[in-house]
Write a structure and sequence with these properties.
heterodimer, A: 369 residues, alpha+beta, MetI-like fold, 2 domains, four-stranded antiparallel beta sheet, two-stranded antiparallel sheet, 8 strands, 12% strand, B: 374 residues, mainly alpha, extended
């Protein structure tokens, strides 16, 4: 009996190890892309181009140790014997492994008569990592670096620092404004009586999943007419408009469920609706407000389409600055990786710090248009 | 206000005083909102035209935007509460609800109608063209390709996101380190599509052929290490679509996992215990207890991701720009409107997207009606 229980315990432990192993592997695969990005962003541009980012970890690699100059008597057109290996010129050019474990590679064309000898050695313990890429991508100032062929190159950085500030100027109001407007509306729908109340709320529910593409063409017309394109106000309004249905819906679900007695006693004390709203409802709804705030913050910060259309090149935000970088400097991985990480850092911090609220908001919410 | 205007005037007597107090009130009622508008207008002009240091502009923008909205609410409410009580009672709800409704109407409801009208007009919206734009949207080679690709996104993207999310949720539920795993899988949710695009573009990077060239993209690195030849992955149709779909799966699995995970936790433990006592295998429990118990949640998650994949734009725009046979509907919308300047065709495409989401809209409305929240 005891033996059986022990066997069962053992089986349970193995399956638990297996389970955690599986999950760890999945998580590792999930994180690998980000790890690659992060490591690359700290490498200098020359290294990025000549080796994969995984080469920063210690590994064995062939390194040239010496050169052999062939005797003029050797016929380069026929098979040649060098260091105990016999091979043709083409084979040497692609590299031949000698019995000693060394690798023989022909240097240049036939006339050089030179063969590089490489030995496998451990490398990668002293990976050259620096913050240079970040400085160059943030500042927009001229930065000097050495390119793949060893030349000194001077380039202007893409000024992601200023895009970062713009993103803040877009995101903070575009998060708070819809929350404020939606909270007022949710209170109105939940606790005030007025004609057309149900019809108007049906409108809100109907607009929940409308794809925002539907609005882009007409709204752009309006903005052009009002000369609003490229202003912060334009993009705040747009994000407010696209975020409001979900905000009103979420906050209504929360505010409508607040205990009736609290409000009634406040009314009896002669408090006006405005006072009740600002001093009772808002403080009580903080969990719901926070959930939506994180949602909207991540959505606005990570948005690309709305910023691309309504801001364009003026007041460029991080996502469009990064997308622009992809277009203009698509091969400059030292800038792209550092830039991508700069766009990610703030949402990652917000997300990790407040993920509990985020998950709660997601459970309560539905689909955003 | 504590008293209506009429009461006060009678109490004080004398037409002159009455006129004076009320004139004062009317004046204040006019001056305050006008003053607010002037301040807000000045702020707007400053933000648009000033050459002040960027940090200053950003701070002013934040204060002006947030403060402005709060001030507008406060002043409007203050005005309404100054009115006779009956009026206040009638108008105040609209002060609360009005701004939200007005903005939703301007940015979503009216655009539906305006886009519908535009979709029957030509590229610069000055002549009617009948159904020409819809004929384009449903028969043009470009659009048919986009539809096919969107279908790939919809089927494979959704399937893999939901099933991976389901498997991870169920597995993580049994582990002691559940939270750690879930946060890690969920992490990509915080990353923008543009950022994710860069991350994955680097994974698919291709250096070209030549002596001594080392592949720097992870995928080609793995392929070469296993003895294969490096490929320019993103240009090879139709497989490049799947490489792009992987990005969406990477981003969306976390979402599916979190929602499904909480549904899995809702399954009564006794039910699972009873099945185990009866000797049911874990696979049998998974397919005949867990999945049926959370089918409602699975449907919700699937719908959400389906809608999401329909509107997908950023990934394709950043990775391939819709070239090499990877175009999707939302990207074609962007190209039509902003590259070719054809508002009519773009509007027709937007309406097609709207129609695709219509079933969900109807479902939402039905749910709302059944709940009888009102």
């Amino acid at each position: 009996m005891a033996a059986k229980a022990q066997g069962f315990q053992k089986q349970k432990r193995t399956s638990s190890i297996l389970l955690n192993l599986t999950l760890s592997i999945i998580c590792f695969i999930w994180l690998l892309p980000v790890i690659g990005l992060l490591i690359t962003s700290f490498r200098n541009s020359q290294d990025i181009f000549t080796s994969g980012w995984w080469k920063v970890f210690p590994h064995r690699e062939y390194q040239n140790t010496r050169q052999i100059i062939l005797d003029p008597s050797v016929d380069v057109n026929g098979p040649m014997t060098v260091e105990g290996v016999t091979a043709s010129f083409d084979e040497f050019r692609n590299g031949v492994t000698a019995p000693t474990g060394e690798k023989l590679t022909w240097y240049g064309n036939k006339r050089t008569r030179t063969i590089d000898v490489a030995e496998q050695k451990w490398v990668g313990f002293s990976a050259a990592l620096s913050l240079k890429n970040y400085i160059s991508v943030l500042s927009g100032k001229s930065v000097t670096f050495t390119d793949a062929s060893g030349r000194e190159v001077v380039t202007r950085g893409p000024a992601l620092g200023s895009a970062f500030l713009n993103s803040l100027a877009v995101t903070i109001p575009a998060t708070i404004i819809p929350i404020l407007i939606a909270a007022f509306a949710a209170y109105g729908f939940a606790w005030l009586n007025f004609p057309g109340r149900k019809l108007l709320f049906i409108l809100v529910v109907a607009m929940l999943v409308v794809p925002l593409q539907i609005a882009l063409v007409p709204i752009l017309q309006d903005y052009t007419r009002l000369n609003l394109n490229g202003t912060f106000l334009a993009i705040w309004l747009a994000h407010t408009g696209f975020g409001l249905p979900l905000a009103v819906y979420l906050l209504f679900n929360y505010i409508a469920l607040l205990p009736r007695e609290i409000l009634e006693s406040a009314f009896l004390d002669g408090a006006s609706n405005f006072t009740i709203f600002t001093s009772l409802i808002l403080p009580l709804s903080i969990p719901a407000l926070a959930s939506f705030a994180i949602f909207q913050f991540l959505w606005v910060w990570n948005d690309f389409l709305v910023a691309l259309i309504f801001l364009g090149d003026k007041n460029r935000v991080v996502t469009s600055a990064l997308a622009n970088l992809v277009g203009e400097r698509g091969q400059d991985w030292h800038l792209l990786t550092a830039g991508a990480f700069i766009t990610m850092i703030l949402p990652l911090i917000v997300f990790l710090a407040l993920q509990r609220y985020f998950v709660r908001g997601m459970m309560a919410g539905s689909v955003k248009g | 206000m504590e008293n209506s205007m009429g009461d006060k005037s009678k109490g004080n007597g004398g037409v002159g005083t009455w006129l004076l107090t009320n004139l004062g009130r009317i004046l204040i009622s006019l001056v305050v909102p006008i003053g607010l508008f002037v301040i807000l207008w000045q702020g707007f002009m400053f933000l648009r035209d000033s050459n002040a240091p960027q940090l200053v502009l950003v701070l002013v923008a934040i204060v002006w935007g947030v403060g402005g909205v709060a001030a507008l609410f406060w002043v409007t409410n203050w005005l309404v509460e100054k009115m006779p009580k009956e009026w206040t009672r009638r108008i105040q709800p609209f002060v609360f609800v009005g701004p939200a409704i007005a903005i939703i109407a301007w940015f979503l409801f009216i655009p539906v109608i305006r886009t519908l009208i535009l979709s029957f007009q030509n590229d610069i919206s000055n002549a009617w063209v009948g159904f020409a734009n819809y004929i384009f949207a449903f028969t043009d080679r470009v659009m048919l390709d986009a539809f096919r690709n969107n279908l790939l996104w919809l089927v494979f993207g959704t399937f893999f996101s939901v099933s991976l999310g389901l498997v991870i949720a169920v597995l993580a539920d049994r582990s002691r380190y559940e939270t750690v795993y879930k946060v890690l899988i969920f992490l990509p949710m915080a990353i923008s599509f543009v950022g994710a695009g860069v991350i994955w573009k680097f994974i698919y990077a291709y250096q070209g052929l030549g002596v001594g060239i080392q592949e720097i993209g992870l995928l080609n690195g793995i392929v070469v290490a296993m003895g294969g030849t490096a490929q320019p992955w993103l240009t090879q149709a139709p497989w490049n679509n799947f490489l792009l779909i992987i990005i969406m799966v990477w981003l969306q699995t976390g979402f599916a996992m979190v929602i499904i995970s909480s549904a899995v936790k809702g399954i009564p433990a006794e039910l699972l215990e009873a099945a185990r006592v009866d000797g049911a295998s874990e696979f049998k429990i998974f397919f005949s207890i867990i999945i049926p118990s959370i089918s409602g949640t699975l449907i919700t998650v699937t719908t959400t991701i389906v809608i999401f994949s329909l509107k997908l734009f950023d990934v394709v725009y950043v990775m391939t720009g819709g070239n090499f046979g990877t175009n999707v509907i939302a990207n074609e919308f962007y190209l039509q409107r902003f590259t070719y300047g054809n508002a009519g065709r773009a509007s027709a495409i937007a309406i097609v997207l709207l129609i695709a989401t219509l079933p969900v809209m109807i479902y939402n409305l039905r749910q709302f009606n059944e709940r009888r929240a009102f």
